[in-house]
């Protein structure tokens, strides 16, 4: 087993470090000789995909958060409304889906029963289902109309890390494919975004190379009982995933919020010493979100919070209000989750490790939940 871990202390640690490769491999072979994007296994007429008027992403756990990221990118690039729903909720609420709905089922294992039942239900309603899956020949892709495989390699640790980055990457590929098919973006825009995507693995590696400070912060927080995670725009699902990782691995109460929601309730939780991660959007973004999130950091810090800030390289505005800053390389806003989630994974893994827990097999959890 030690050899399989490739010198890392755990599969989790190894898989976190496999992430540049997982993204690289998921992007391989996505373009034909003419430079057009292609999917792996498409049994849906292109004319049907052109007339799709809604996308519904169904998934559970970490895969559902990949769906949340997808919503921001696909709506922006393709102008198709995207809903994201937990598969077990979707299945039992009489959802509005029909022949013009594309359902995207995201599952690392391809065997999650809740997601499979939702796939079957969607197809019964006439919807086309595209699976984003990491396991060749598993049930969900076999029962779907199209497949886009993530190439993260086998994921052994129960809590998902590299499959998550690969899933996000696959949804970007899907979004660009649909934009190409439906003419929402110019070919050179698609090429440019795809090139930016191809530059992400090296940037993920840079984040990994900077992990010492994250680890040290986690070690210092061994006795922490509660951590909050705040993010906005694509940083919101990253906050949710950061909280989930901490619950799963370290059994610490954690909650992710949309930073804009802070003043509508969660700010009441802030008291002296409360630790809060804040994912700060790029100051170069088109919106004023950067300054809004900086204000959030000031608000919680003024009330005693310990602020652990994830920000872009060169973002000087955050430093005065941050107890610690974890910097990530610059990249386009929509692609940033591939970078900003990595310190949160390392934080959860390290904190669980210093608490003496088995990060590969957390209590009560299963890698693949094959019962409803
Ligand atoms: C389980 C795992 C999670 C995973 C979820 C969905 O709960 O512990 O890590 O995110 O299932 O699994 P899937 O294989 O469908 O992506």
Task: Summarize the structure in words.
By secondary structure, this protein is α/β, with parallel strands linked by helices. It is built from 14 helices and 11 strands. The protein has helices at residues 11-17, 19-27, 46-51, 61-78, 87-91, 113-124, 139-142, 162-182, 187-198, 200-209, 212-220, 235-250, 289-302, 337-354, and strands at residues 41-42, 54-59, 82-86, 101-107, 128-133, 146-149, 226-231, 253-258, 275-279, 306-312, 324-328. Strands 1-6-5-4-2-3 form a 6-stranded mixed β-sheet, with helices on both faces. The chain has a 5-stranded parallel β-sheet with strand order 8-7-9-10-11, sandwiched between helices. α7 (139-142) links the parallel β5 and β6. The protein is globular. The protein binds 6-O-phosphono-alpha-D-glucopyranose (G6P). Residues 60-63, 107-109, 112, 115, 158-160, 365, 367-369 line the site of 6-O-phosphono-alpha-D-glucopyranose. Homodimer. Its EC number is 2.6.1.16. The active site is at 367 (for fru-6p isomerization activity). It is an enzyme of class 2 (transferase). One of its GO terms (molecular function) is carbohydrate derivative binding.
Sheet with most strands: strand arrangement: 1-6-5-4-2-3
Helix content: 40-55%
Bound ligand species: 6-O-phosphono-alpha-D-glucopyranose
**Global geometry:** globular
- Through-space gap between termini: 31 Å
Report the major sheet: 6 strands, mixed
Number of helices: 14
SS-based class: alpha/beta
Topology as H/E string? Answer: HHEHEHEHEHEHEHHHHEHEEHEEH
**What number is the mean pLDDT?**
95
EC number: 2.6.1.16
Catalytic activity: D-fructose 6-phosphate + L-glutamine = D-glucosamine 6-phosphate + L-glutamate
Function: Catalyzes the first step in hexosamine metabolism, converting fructose-6P into glucosamine-6P using glutamine as a nitrogen source.
Enzyme class: transferase
């Amino acid at each position: 087993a030690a050899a399989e871990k490739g010198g890392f202390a755990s599969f989790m640690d190894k898989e976190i470090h496999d992430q540049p490769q997982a993204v690289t491999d998921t992007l391989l072979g996505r373009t034909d000789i003419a430079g057009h994007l292609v999917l792996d296994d498409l049994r849906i007429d292109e004319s049907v995909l052109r007339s799709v008027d809604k996308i519904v992403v169904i998934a559970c756990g970490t895969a559902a958060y990949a769906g949340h990221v997808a919503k921001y990118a696909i709506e922006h690039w393709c102008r198709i409304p995207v809903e994201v729903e937990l598969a077990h909720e979707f299945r039992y609420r009489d959802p509005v889906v029909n022949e013009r709905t594309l359902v995207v089922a995201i599952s690392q294992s391809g065997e999650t029963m809740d997601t499979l039942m939702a796939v079957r239900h969607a197809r019964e309603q006439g919807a086309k289902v595209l699976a984003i899956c990491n396991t060749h020949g598993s049930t969900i892709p076999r029962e779907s109309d199209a497949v886009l495989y993530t190439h993260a390699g086998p994921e052994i640790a129960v809590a998902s890390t590299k499959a998550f980055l690969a899933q996000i990457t696959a949804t970007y590929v899907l979004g660009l494919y649909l934009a190409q098919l439906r003419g929402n973006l110019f070919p050179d825009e698609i090429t440019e975004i795809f090139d930016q995507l191809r530059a992400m693995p090296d940037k993920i590696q840079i984040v990994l190379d900077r992990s010492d400070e994250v680890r040290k912060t986690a070690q210092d927080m061994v006795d922490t009982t509660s951590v909050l995670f705040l993010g906005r725009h694509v940083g919101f699902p990253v906050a949710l995933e950061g909280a989930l990782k901490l619950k799963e691995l370290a059994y610490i109460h954690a909650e992710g919020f949309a930073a804009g929601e802070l003043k509508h309730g969660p700010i009441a939780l802030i008291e002296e010493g409360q630790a809060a991660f804040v994912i700060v959007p790029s100051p170069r973004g088109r919106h004023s979100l950067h300054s809004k999130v900086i204000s959030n950091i000031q608000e919680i810090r003024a009330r005693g919070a310990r602020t652990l800030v994830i920000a872009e390289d060169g973002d000087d505005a955050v430093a005065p209000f941050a107890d610690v800053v974890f910097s990530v390389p610059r990249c386009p806003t929509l692609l940033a989750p591939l970078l900003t989630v990595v310190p949160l994974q390392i934080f959860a893994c390290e904190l669980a490790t210093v608490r003496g827990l088995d990060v590969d097999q957390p209590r009560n959890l299963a890698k693949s939940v094959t019962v409803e």
